[in-house]
Amino acid sequence: MNVLIWHVHGSWITSFVQGPHTYLVPVTPDRGPDGLGRARTWDWPESVRELTPEQLRAAPIDLMVLQRPHEVKLAESWTGRRPGSDVPAVYVEHNSPHETPVETRHPLADRDDIPIVHVTHFNRLMWDNGRAPTTVVEHGIIDPGRLWTGEKERAAVVVNEPVRRGRTTGTDLLPRFAEMTPLDVFGMRTEQLADHLGLSAERCRTRDLPQAQLHPAMAGCRLYLHPIRWTSLGLSLLEAMFLGMPVVALDTTEIREAVPDGVGVVSNRFDVLEKGVRELLADHGHAKRMGEGARAAAQARYGVRRFLDDWEHLMKEVTR
């Protein structure tokens, strides 16, 4: 099939385009948010083709995979075809409802011609999906290999824009954890984080690395810390588990599903979380064993082959 999809979430789409189809990715001269084109720092197959809006109007399209509300109109404007009516379409909802899980109505809730594909069962439950058909395709991770060494007695944290997102990403909790362990915080727009939190550069080192450098840098840290209060299930958490890292995480959203008992420390109690961090820092062997369990759990549930098989089944259902 020819699948139209915008380049929105780099990690997720990198797994998605490993499938057997041709993927049409819009590109614009400025390579802005609606026209990023092919990835520059990810390894994408040749089956991903860049098309301008003008080229899309004449291109054969079998399925539209939408990810942002405005793409419904954008797809019609650029292709001359209506998603869900002229061409089969699905809408991938990557996020948890931000305002409230009780009263947030999904942008496609009043349509029944475009199924909503949630990335976690938690998200499907929390959104008000209205009359839209819904399903869940859980994340799939391309295995980076067991890279963990844990020689640095530091905790890795991956978060984009931690200053702006604040309590959503648990940014306010980082000084508490920094009292126990120095932090290596990776992600976009992290430069001012240490100053914002009143931490020294040594207690809170920040870096924005390309994916090829990110995983080895994370894997050198003793543990992965996930202080997220309210976002969807972070791919960085799953990637850390694939690396063989032991994880310490808040017991929020879908975390309990992703991190089974015994392969990480998951709790909303500060004393339990802090004890977990201290024990991992003090005992490299304990950290290694927990990380091996985390890797096995992630491989069993979030492998890319299962992800692609789930999507293949869904695509056939939607386009038949």
Q: List the uncertain runs.
A: none
Fraction in helix? 25-40%
Number of helices: 13
Count of beta strands: 13
Mean pLDDT: 96
Q: For the report, how would you describe the main beta sheet?
A: 7 strands, parallel
- The main sheet orders its strands as 3-2-1-4-5-6-7
Succession of helices and strands: EHEEHEHEEHEEHHEHEHEHEHEHHH
Give the terminus-to-terminus CA distance. 12 Å
Name the beta content range.
15-25%
Secondary structure category: alpha/beta
Instruction: Please state the CA-atom Rg, rounded to the nearest Å.
Output: 20 Å
The outline comes out as elongated
Which helices and strands occur, and which strands form pairs?
Blueprint lengths: L1 E4 L4 H7 L5 E5 L21 E4 L1 H6 L4 E4 L4 H9 L9 E5 L22 E3 L2 H6 L7 E3 L15 E7 L3 H4 L8 H5 L4 E4 L6 H5 L6 E4 L3 H9 L1 E6 L8 H8 L4 E4 L4 H4 L5 E4 L2 H13 L1 H19 L1 H16 L1
Parallel strand pairs: 1-2, 1-4, 2-3, 4-5, 5-6, 6-7, 8-9, 8-11, 9-10, 11-12, 12-13
Helix pairs in contact: 9-12
